Amino acid sequence: MLIDEMKYITPEISLLCFALLIVVVDLFVTRKGVLPILSVIGALVAAFFTVGLWGNGGISAFNNMIAIDQFGLFFKLLILASLVLVVMASNKYVLKFEKFQGEYYAVLMLSAIGLMLLVSAVNLITIYVSLELSSISLYALVSFLKDKASSEAGLKYLILGAVASAILLYGMALTFGLTGSTGLTAIADYFRTSSTASPLLLTGLVLIIAGFGFKIASVPFQLWVPDVYEGAPTPITAYLSVASKAAGFAVITRILMTAFGQPDWLHAEWAIIIAVLAALTMTVGNVTALVQTNIKRLFGYSSIAQAGYLMVGLAAMGMATQGNADIRSGIIFFLFSYTLTNLGAFIAIIAISNKIDSDQIADYTGMGKRSPLLAGALTLFLVSLTGLPPTAGLIAKIYIFNGAVDQGLLWLVVIAVINSVISAFYYFRVVKVMWMGEPASQDKVTSSWPEWTALAVCCIMVVIIGVAPGAFVGLTQAAVKMFGI
């Protein structure tokens, strides 16, 4: 019975209850400091229920609309971790929209619910509804500052998001028309009996890839990224760059490997498409980032480049004859390390920007003298994004590039390595400005304890994963153990 299956979405239900509680509490309390506390508690309760479901691998619920497996549960925990860190990083930033703090935290939690449902969805209908739930919430969050830049960013995100949604829906409609089903497993069963590539099939597949290409910021669907990253509230920029991207890669991995993973001729078709897009995405992202003067725009283009590196793993996964658990776990490991690294970088940026009231890289001059800890933390994260030891970024790139080489994609890995060298120029330009310039002011840059706590967690985890990655590799391998074909 459907009522009996409600236990499988207890993480989402609990998070929804806390989101509604925050709205109600916001009406009656004057001290708004309780709202982020409730948000963190809500995320922790949802995480508790998620961990409780970990042993229930391979279960389908709600007429095969939702899958309860380690793959989805891992990403739910990653999304919840991102939510907690973003809430902690928003501690001072929310004073910019002091009257709407309750709405901010509630909508942020609603977007997390959509992303959590998205990573577990195994039906095209569920995927689309979950995607729209998260997207509509994010459209509102991007515009939350209500100034010209924020409103413009929200409008651009909404319009381009609607176009991408229509493209995705059309691809899903073509797939349904060809196969007669919206379930990923049923679609896979249809293709296993097919021996040739139908033009309609390939068109539907390309449109689905294009629709999710917007979500993961792949070329040529990346045009929204720099403006949205610059105009959105910085904590939301951080959230977009990690939680939304992680969910996007999770669902496209599930769709490609479950619905379009067999026969061999089919996954070889989309692997080539992904490989070409990966080369273009990382190159466009890194080259354009070289000329940026705004740190949020720089991280926007950096995010595009990182999507390109992740797509190397997707292409390698498609090239593998029977799918490859190591490649899939490599993608998850990369997303895990990238989430910690990018969130940590944005937490440092939030703390610095709150003090200097600027996102211009030139205004970070001498930050190493004004706040050595913040500058040191940001330097560590920039080193990790470059892919240098002893950080998580190095292990993540080795893991994913090694899988690509094993599948005959040496040419793509060479392009990725060249792009990593290019990225060092703009990452270390920020490092140079912070440590080698003279500060315009001698005022110390301070931060609140929630921001320091979130920053410390990210720093410690980035170093631990870089020095001793074994346990985390095992965790990602467990996440894909019962997933796939």
Explain the overall architecture.
The chain is mainly α and 485 residues long. It has a domain at 291-485. It is built from 19 helices and 2 strands. It has helices at residues 10-28, 34-52, 70-89, 101-120, 124-142, 148-179, 184-192, 199-216, 225-231, 234-259, 264-289, 295-319, 325-356, 367-370, 372-386, 392-406, 410-436, 449-467, 470-480, and strands spanning 59-61, 66-68. β1 (59-61) and β2 (66-68) form a beta hairpin. α10 (234-259) packs parallel to α12.
Break the fold down into its secondary structure elements and pairings.
Blueprint: H1 10-28, H2 34-52, E1 59-61, E2 66-68, H3 70-89, H4 101-120, H5 124-142, H6 148-179, H7 184-192, H8 199-216, H9 225-231, H10 234-259, H11 264-289, H12 295-319, H13 325-356, H14 367-370, H15 372-386, H16 392-406, H17 410-436, H18 449-467, H19 470-480
Antiparallel strand pairs: 1-2
Helix pairs in contact: 1-2, 1-4, 2-3, 2-4, 3-4, 3-10, 3-13, 3-18, 3-19, 4-5, 4-10, 5-6, 5-10, 6-8, 6-9, 8-10, 8-11, 9-10, 9-12, 10-12, 10-13, 11-12, 11-17, 12-13, 12-16, 12-17, 13-15, 13-16, 13-18, 13-19, 15-17, 15-18, 16-17, 16-18
Distance between the termini: 28 Å
Strand order in space, largest sheet: 1-2
Shape: globular
Stretches where pLDDT is under 50 for at least 5 consecutive residues are: none
- What integer value in Å does the Rg equal? 21 Å
Number of strands: 2
Question: What do the pLDDT scores average to?
Answer: 86
Share of helical residues: over 70%
- Beta-strand content: under 5%
The count of helical stretches stands at 19
Category from helices, strands and their pairing: mainly alpha
Main sheet overview:
2 strands, antiparallel
Order of helices and strands: HHEEHHHHHHHHHHHHHHHHH
